[in-house]
Amino acid sequence: MEPAFSLLTPSQTAVLPLVFDSPHSGIHCPADFNTQVPVEFIKTGWDAFIDDIWQPVVEQGGYLLHAHFSRMYIDPNRAPTDIDPELLDKPWEICQPTKYSERGMGLIRRFALPNKPMYDRKLTQAEVLHRIHHYYTPYHQQLQTLLDALHSQFKGVWHIDCHSMKSIGNGMNIDAGISRPDIILGDLDGTSASGEFVDVIAKAFADKGYKVVKNKPYKGGYLVSHYADIAANRHSVQIEINRALYMHEQRFEMNDNYQHFKSDTAYVAQQLASYVSMQIGR
Ligand SMILES: [Zn+2]
């Protein structure tokens, strides 16, 4: 069985409490997926290359966790109960669908693209539980374990939840049809991380010439809200990168700017590492 995730650990001995997680850069489709949609549709939800783009953080003393499975199969950036009852063959009391499920993109996707259903059948509770137990929960357990260990060692931890976004949203997105900026930072309107930390991220991207927006329209998802606790010195920020900066959006291939962009994210990772070093008094 394909492992659910990889955890890249710091390549140097000066370890920092800095953790990047990339929940959507996997494209593995397990054998029991049994979706009716073609792989081209699956790829539209894929944060292609995002784990590679942020890989430089491990050279700065940070960690990088990335999922291998497709978020279209099960999405780590959703609450485990965010399940649309319409997907299921019978009622299930654990279902607590949110606005994500209403748009067809809850824990288990109902639609791949607008009006393109993922399944021509109903799912059983057993197959949803299989996805939770073998993919969703191991990913979250690894992230929780790592954040807790670093927090207990350093009395603080800084988490970045890494994503990409289409340059223009589709009908399932909250900003359908609108051109997006280069970078959107989500800190749940200032409640998931210190303003100082968010400003360091924003300045690092701005230093390299990118247009950065905060919380509009993406404020941060389940991962950020679940792992943030500013009062306990646990900071969590979502970074959305515009795909047009580094890939052909239709072909899902790196574009000519890829290596240049990756050198800029290496600069951002280095700026974050030096900020976190200061916070732990190093
Ligand atoms: Zn994503």
CATH class: Alpha Beta
Largest sheet: 7 strands, mixed
Work out the count of structural domains: 1
Query: How far is the first residue's CA from the last residue's CA?
Result: 41 Å
Mean pLDDT value: 96
Helix content: 25-40%
Structural class: alpha/beta
How would you briefly describe this protein structure?
The protein is of the alpha/beta class. It is built from seven helices and eleven strands.
Could you explain the architecture of this structure?
- The protein has 282 residues and is α/β, with parallel strands linked by helices.
- The protein has one domain (5-279): Aminopeptidase.
- Helix content is 30%, strand content 17%.
- It contains seven helices and eleven strands.
- A seven-stranded mixed sheet has the order 1-3-2-6-9-7-8, with helices on both faces.
- It is globular, with a radius of gyration of 18 Å.
- The N and C termini lie far apart (41 Å).
- The structure holds zinc ion.
